[in-house]
Amino acid sequence: MFGGQGLSPYYLLVQLIGGGFLFTAFFMANDYTTTPMSKRGKVYFAMLFGAFVFILRKASFQEESAVAGLLAANALVRLIDKASMTKPFGVVQAKKIIRIGTPKKRPAGSVLTEKEAERIPAAQVTGSETAGTISDEALNAQERRRGNKAARKRRGGQTRMEVMYKSTRSDAAPITASAAILKGLADDGGLFVPTVVPALDRSFEELAGMNYKEVAYEVMKLVLTDFTQEELRGCIDKAYGENFDTAKIAPIKDKSGTYFMELFHGPTIAFKDMALQILPHLMTTAAKKNHLDRKIVILTATSGDTGKAALAGFAGVPDTKIVVFYPKDGVSAIQKRQMVTQQGDNTCVIAAEGNFDNCQSGVKQIFTDEALREKMEAAGYQFSSANSINIGRLVPQIVYYVWAYTRLLRNRRISSGDEVNFVVPTGNFGDILAAYYAKAMGIPVHRLICASNSNKVLFDFFRTGTYDRNREFILTSSPSMDILISSNLERLIYHIAGDNAAVNAQLMKDLSEKGVYRISDEMRSKLDCFYGGYADEDQTADAIRLMYENHRYVIDPHTAVAASVYAQYQTETADETPTVIVSTASPFKFETSVMRALGKETDMDDLDLADELARTAGVPVPQAVASLRGAKILHKGVCGKDKASMQSMVEKFLGL
Known about the structure:
Layout: H1 9-30, H2 39-59, H3 66-80, E1 85-87, E2 91-92, H4 94-100, H5 114-118, H6 128-131, H7 141-154, E3 165-167, H8 177-183, E4 192-194, H9 204-208, H10 212-223, H11 229-239, E5 252-255, E6 258-262, H12 273-276, H13 279-289, E7 295-301, H14 305-314, E8 320-327, H15 333-340, E9 347-352, H16 356-367, H17 370-378, E10 381-384, H18 391-410, E11 420-425, H19 430-440, E12 445-452, H20 457-464, E13 466-468, H21 489-496, H22 501-514, E14 516-518, H23 521-524, E15 530-534, H24 537-551, H25 557-573, E16 579-583, H26 591-597, H27 606-617, H28 623-626, E17 637-639, H29 643-654
Parallel strand pairs: 6-16, 7-8, 7-10, 8-9, 9-17, 11-12, 11-16, 12-15
Antiparallel strand pairs: 1-2, 3-4, 5-6, 13-14
């Protein structure tokens, strides 16, 4: 007898059920466990504690003491879970979730199933570890994924983590993605980087079932968080459609177990289309979101491919103008022809004496000229950039690394969670940096293989930790990589410095004033996922020839640099990790170099040579090249390589 009441079976059953339901609601709301348990298991467990509540109620001789009994049960649960609990209401450190709450640790980047996710309590998503920052102190991709899933759970699945953008050179207040896209370059000369790198919130299996547009949305929604779903999907739909000659957008070709991701199926037959077909839409959308009342002037330096891709993207776009500088003798014949025949009253193409580095330095100096900025604002203009220094260029490039991984999974070349290598022909460091961000978002990457040509400043950097541009500039058959100042490397330097703007700013100052800087040993230790290699002109030509002889597959010189470096890497490491080589341009953009490497006659007009290449490769001449026949040369401007000469051309075009 308790409190004068008899414990009849009927009464006991009612109390057990009532107490069980009460505790179940409280238990599941707080998710008090880090051990794997099904929903049914939770109910049974809660029912037992319901009995405990009932006994405490009766022992207290008060019907109103149910709450006290429930709190006592709660205290007991906390004692049981004490090993992993650090804060009330189920907030658990992500690192301890891995150690306590998972039967075995998965490889970095592996994906939780929905059932597994349900077993994990809410994780704290503030701070560097669980928020997914890119520093080495951050948790691995698996922990970041769990932390982000917890954030969505706490917010009811309605709100994504907000990603802001800050400069690599100062601690100025972060700005939104749309504002960063409009500005292009920070006021202090730094590049915009995300304050946090979110993890993918779809499983690899889910992504494998999607088309390119769908994958693009799932990736870009996480980092362009101030764009609405309607805005972002609209930009993506306009960017990736019939302007590409394949519905796959970025098909992957298997050549004896090495995979070539072809990024040259857009309107200008180079990988720059992958980002520059969407950038104009992102930029015009951003202008509306930010109530911009000035016209946007795209100011861009190109080593060959960016120029035409940017011109094609922005030509005819209302309230924009575009100015492209290219090195007069530093691009291929087809690249030059593509640019100087560009139509559109809002376009301007100028050949600059000197090399790409001169063009790029001049553009950066024009960007940060305060007097010119004031003059432009008075005339109703604002600068932005289409180079990969613009975060709006870089974000869409992350997409195709996620795409590549999930295509290999879809085609059963890998299993979910398996690591892959990416080999990226690299000049300005934007393309391989996008792969680095893809890795940070959860793609399991073993090595990022940075392939340089004879301008091997990046190869030397990864081998020594010293970046030194004080060397001879070499014109090669892969002109888009003829670069000695790799602008996007600054973003990586910032991250491996622990997101320290002061450290990065000093190194960039050393580069500007002395032409050289050296990173610390601690920073070098954070580059272990990178491998640097290079191929000279002979090795590049050999790679083109061998690929054709062995596979009847014709590649351009930039892709050949990557193929050659990958062969060197295999010899050096015997690494058998599945590998994707990023094929950045069509061989038709560099037909003279390709045909010469194949031992073919090259003494003819560039368009006639394209016909010969088509017969050799057994593929039709791309429309981007065929359309150049009879095209009128519209842009004949030439200027010096200094900032003053370049700026005068800009002012003349804008009528300032």
